[in-house]
Design a protein that fits this description.
Elements (H helix, E strand, L loop, with lengths): L10 H10 L2 H13 L6 H32 L6 H5 L9 H12 L2 H15 L3 H25 L6 H8 L2 H33 L3 H9 L13 H16 L1 H26 L28 H13 L18 H30 L10 H8 L4 H22 L1 H12 L17 H17 L6 H23 L20 H13 L17 H27 L1 H5 L3 H23 L16 H15 L3 H25 L13 H4 L6 H11 L6 H14 L3
């Protein structure tokens, strides 16, 4: 009956565990007392023995379900040696990480997004759109930076969520990051090929359309072998070694930044302030109302939602924890510096472009080259094209670089196939994982029209950002009793060990009272306050989802101030504020870290709100594709990962497994003595017979 369950059960330990909780007496107390009455007939004893057997089988199922749930929420425990040692080559400096973050972010956003948002969505206020997007990205970046300071391991948001939230959620995050990077690599490779093809007069696409056309729906109209070749070349580069690919990235990112500087300085000589203050009569119909906000405030915010994705890529820095010198210091610095450089680049170029040319005349596909051609600077087109090639190359590296590292982290943990985590002895890189991921991305770039799948990148990214922000809150309000290894940094110098010990002891014995929401007996967190924070964060997330979902669906009703819509939104907003206030009133863990997010809990909460809102704005088709991808992932996890995950050796401290503290099946005498000494009744001989019978029939591994 239990052969197909994807986990092991110590049947006797399950009985002992339930018996120690007095479940045994509650469930079969009457049957046992009747069974001990020697005056009852044989038929009655047999009947009650059968009832006992069925009850014990139901308890086995109950224990199996509990064990199954415990595996879904078990956490990865990292020791100090885990944080200090790595199978990968530690060779990346702060400069390497900064250029890696800038290169992966400052690509298609610079040469495509600026023109599209300025022309169709925000007008000259695209500068404000990038500012809002930068603030939203910076909040997520700060949360990434604190996690990198706590857990400098390869795998980024996957590892962070595994250590703090649990295995199932970590798998969901990691599985979606794989999707994000695969689609990102394929789309940028295709964009690189298309841009180069346009420079030589569309000869590549024309040749393949004529000789090898594809007439299949949802696929490209021709196979892009050039995009496949680019992807495979980059795959080989990453397989050879990280330092070599970092040099390549640094050179191309440097060229890209020089082009940004060239565009900004040269554009200063051709600025026209009037282009930010066009009258409504000067603007053609259907292109807004002129001025700095031609599409209104809503257009600026819609532009910010699009510009947000132009900042996606900085999280690549957080995936390099095992290849970085002094990662706890280098990664936070690189994230903050790279985001600052990217924002300055986007804002300066968007300001120059919209001041040189009226926004409604911009070319949405090649705005930079077009504005310089309009003022007679033809040579600038070729300089900008060089920058575009370099920028797209580093963006391609940025999409491809984290993919094998995510596979390495998940393969090493066993949640996906373990061969993904094997390290080549010479190159010290995950060669097999890199090769398979590069081949998969290359095949997508070859035959798929990835434009329909671009929105799926957003789900994985935004979900990762949300989980990281939530995890920062969980860790900040967690007590030392629930922290392990790398999750338990040194206390501040004024911390009192005896006080910490008493707090820990109090945490294990205290019970929840209503006043625990606002009043606390200790200035440091306990298990009760940590639980209050987790529950409040879960309730807060539900209020955020409900509020934004209602505001999106009832936008017209809110705009006309209909009472039912306004009342519901006010109630949800009050619930959201109350949940946030409860979190704020809980004591924080005074752990000393190389970097900590400021304004906790407010900054992570705002980050969660922004990310959830953007996720709810995605199309229904995107969510359907997301569901299909998740079904495939769950099949892998529940048939392989849940049984092979390395964290099965590291049990969640919040939920100790009974197999650790209770006797094994083969020693009933020990169990009887242990039970007697602890004040609980022992099992009779029938318990042991059924337990051994279950193990013999099902052959648990």
């Amino acid at each position: 009956m239990f052969f197909f369950l994807p986990f092991n059960i110590e049947a006797y330990s399950a009985f002992a565990f339930l018996d120690s909780l007095d479940f045994h007496h509650v469930l079969i107390g009457k049957g046992r007392s009747t069974n001990l009455n020697l005056s009852v007939g044989t038929g009655v004893r047999t009947c009650h023995r059968s009832l006992d057997n069925r009850t014990r089988y139901s308890r086995i199922i109950t224990m199996a379900a509990a064990n199954f749930f415990r595996r879904l929420v078990r956490k990865k425990v990292l020791s100090n040696s885990d944080l200090e040692t790595s199978s990968l080559n530690r060779c990346l400096s702060v400069v390497d990480l900064t250029f890696l973050g800038v290169g992966s972010t400052l690509g298609a956003g610079l040469y495509v997004v600026i023109g599209q948002v300025a022309k169709d969505t925000a007008g000259p206020s695209v500068v404000i759109s990038f500012l809002v997007a930068a603030i939203a990205s910076a909040m997520a970046g700060l949360c990434y930076a604190e996690f990198a300071a706590r857990i400098p391991r390869a795998g980024s948001a996957y590892v962070y969520s595994y250590v703090t939230v649990g295995e199932l959620m970590a798998f969901i995050i990691g599985w979606n990051l794989i999707l994000e990077y695969v689609i990102g690599t394929a789309s940028v490779a295709r964009a690189w090929s298309s841009y180069f093809d346009s420079l030589i007069g569309d000869k590549i696409s024309g040749f393949f359309r004529e000789h090898m056309p594809i007439h299949v729906a949802q696929l490209s109209d021709y196979p892009d072998f050039f995009a496949l070749g680019i992807t495979l070349l980059l795959t080989v580069l990453l397989m050879v070694g990280v330092k070599e690919s970092a040099r390549f990235n640094n050179i191309f990112t440097g060229v890209n930044l020089l082009v940004v500087l060239y565009v900004t300085l040269c554009g200063l000589f051709k600025l026209k302030i009037h282009n930010w203050n066009l009258s409504e009569k000067e603007v053609p119909k259907g292109n807004g109302e002129g001025g700095f906000l031609p599409f209104g405030f809503s257009g600026t915010m819609a532009g910010a939602a699009t510009c947000f994705y132009a900042f996606v890529g900085f999280d690549i820095v957080a995936t390099t924890g095992e290849e970085t010198k002094n990662p706890q210091r280098s990664i936070p610095i690189a994230i903050i510096v790279s985001l600052s450089i990217v924002f300055l680049s986007y804002s300066s170029v968007s300001a120059v472009v919209t001041l040189m040319c009226p926004y409604y005349l911009l070319d949405s596909n090649a705005a930079l080259a077009q504005v310089f051609e309009r003022v007679g600077w033809t040579v600038a087109r070729y300089i900008i094209s060089i920058g575009a090639i370099c920028g797209l190359s580093t963006s391609l590296l940025g999409c491809m670089f984290p993919l094998p590292r995510i596979l390495y982290a998940m393969g090493s943990d066993g949640v996906i196939f373990r061969f993904m985590g094997e390290i080549h002895p010479r190159f010290q890189t995950p060669v097999l994982g890199t090769a398979l991921s590069g081949l998969f991305a290359g095949l997508m770039a070859l035959i798929f029209d990835v434009s329909d799948l671009v929105d799926m990148m957003s789900i994985g990214t935004l979900l990762a950002y949300t989980l990281v922000s939530v995890s920062v809150l969980i860790l900040r309000y967690e007590c030392d009793a629930n922290l392990r290894g790398g999750m338990n940094p040194d206390k501040t110098s004024n911390s009192n060990p005896s006080m910490a010990s008493s707090v820990s002891q109090h945490a294990n014995t205290s019970t929840f009272r209503l006043h625990n929401l606002i009043l606390h007996e200790s200035s440091e967190p306990t298990q009760i306050t940590a639980l209050v924070t987790k529950v409040a964060m879960a309730v807060l997330s539900m209020f955020i989802i409900a509020l934004f979902w209602l505001s999106i669906l009832s936008y017209d009703a809110l705009r006309h101030a209909e009472p039912w819509a306004v009342s519901l939104c006010v109630i949800l907003a009050l619930g959201l504020a109350l949940s946030a206030l409860i979190i704020f009133l809980q004591p924080q863990n005074p752990a000393r870290l190389p970097f900590k997010v400021p304004l906790v809990p407010w900054l992570p909460i705002v980050s969660v709100m922004v990310n959830i809102y953007l996720m709810l704005k995605l199309s229904t088709a995107t969510w359907i594709r997301f569901g299909v991808w998740m079904i495939i992932g769950f099949l892998i996890y529940f048939t392989y990962g849940i049984r092979h995950a390395q964290s099965s050796d590291n049990v969640d401290p919040d939920a100790p497994s009974p197999e650790i503290s209770l006797p094994s099946v083969g020693k009933p005498e020990e169990h009887r003595s242990t039970s007697a000494s602890s004040g609980t009744s022992s099992f009779n001989e029938e318990d042991h017979l059924i337990a051994h019978d279950v193990l013999a029939k099902n052959k648990f591994s």
